[in-house]
Amino acid sequence: GENVEQHPSTLSVQEGDSAVIKCTYSDSASNYFPWYKQELGKRPQLIIDIRSNVGEKKDQRIAVTLNKTAKHFSLHITETQPEDSAVYFCAASAPGNTPLVFGKGTRLSVIA
Amino acid sequence: EAQVTQNPRYLITVTGKKLTVTCSQNMNHEYMSWYRQDPGLGLRQIYYSMNVEVTDKGDVPEGYKVSRKEKRNFPLILESPSPNQTSLYFCASSSRGRTSEKLFFGSGTQLSVL
């Protein structure tokens, strides 16, 4: 089955700097790659997703890139703000009756 | 308001005492799933259901049961809880019976088994 590796497990950046979180996946059939943000004490919420027919997607300060050949995808946050501090999870799924598999998460701290 | 409702929010129990965590969604979603979240281990899937009367094991199904008799409800049952099941549990749902859609999570259930 699918295996998703996520790095780094913790990341600290200065406010205003950029943050990058990377994930690799094992199943070449995977075609959907969402990112979830979980603030302290809250539920995970979808922030951005990308499908395998697209190489990059942006939403304001957040972008996701996908390299199907290398089987990795990344989350990029620019101009980080304290409210970006949270745990971020990547995930991957293949078509059909297969579940979404999550990475272990990255705890991002934005230092003011 | 579209939502996934989980109850209870907090639960403290003792080893061996059967318990049920309820999950209900009002979005007519086909797909529902249970996860447990432990420090350093991320979100691990326990069971999932693609539609009514269809359930499948996730990565960590041992010690858990589920049922999907109605589309909106997907309860998680611990027949004989043990301390290693102390964890934060999330129910989630999505549309069209496929996982490649946005997952809506419940607010979580913090379970402590003594």
What labels would you give this structure?
heterodimer, A: 112 residues, mainly beta, six-stranded mixed β-sheet, five-stranded antiparallel β-sheet, B: 114 residues, seven-stranded mixed β-sheet, four-stranded antiparallel β-sheet, 11 strands, 0% helix, globular
- Integer-rounded radius of gyration of chain B: 13 Å
Distance between the termini of chain B: 36 Å
Percent of residues of chain B in beta strands?
A: over 45%
Molecular shape of chain B:
globular
Largest sheet of chain B: 7 strands, mixed
Backbone shape of chain A = globular
Report the sheet with the most strands of chain A, covering strand number, pairing sense and barrel closure.
6 strands, mixed
Total count of strands of chain A: 11
- Low-confidence parts of chain B: none
* Structural classification of chain A: mainly beta
- Give the strand content of chain A: over 45%
The quaternary state of the protein chains shown equals heterodimer
Largest interface between protein chains, with number of residues from each side: A-B, 24 and 22 residues
Order of helices and strands of chain A: EEEEEEEEEEE
Measured on Cα atoms, how large is the radius of gyration of chain A? 13 Å
**Total helical segments of chain B:** 0
Percent of residues in helices of chain A comes to under 10%
Structural class of chain B: mainly beta
Strand tally of chain B: 11
**Poorly predicted regions of chain A:** none
Structure report:
- The complex is a heterodimer of chains A (112) and B (114).
- Chain A is built from no helices and 11 strands.
- Chain A is mostly beta strands and 112 residues long.
- In chain A, the strands form 2 sheets. In chain A, strands 2, 4, 5, 9, 10 and 11 form a 6-stranded mixed β-sheet that branches. In chain A, strands 1-3-8-7-6 form a 5-stranded antiparallel β-sheet, with no helix packed on it.
- In chain A, a hairpin with an 8-residue loop joins β9 and β10.
- Chain A is globular, with a radius of gyration of 13 Å.
- Chain A starts with a strand and ends with a strand.
- With 114 residues, chain B is mainly beta.
- In chain B, 0% of the residues lie in helices and 50% in strands.
- Chain B contains no helices and 11 strands.
- In chain B, the strands form 2 sheets. In chain B, strands 2, 4, 5, 6, 9, 10 and 11 form a 7-stranded mixed β-sheet that branches. A 4-stranded antiparallel β-sheet of chain B has the order 1-3-8-7, with no helix packed on it.
- Chain B is globular, with a radius of gyration of 13 Å.
- The chains are: A mainly beta (112), B mainly beta (114).
- Chains A and B meet through β4, β5 and β10 of A and β5 of B.
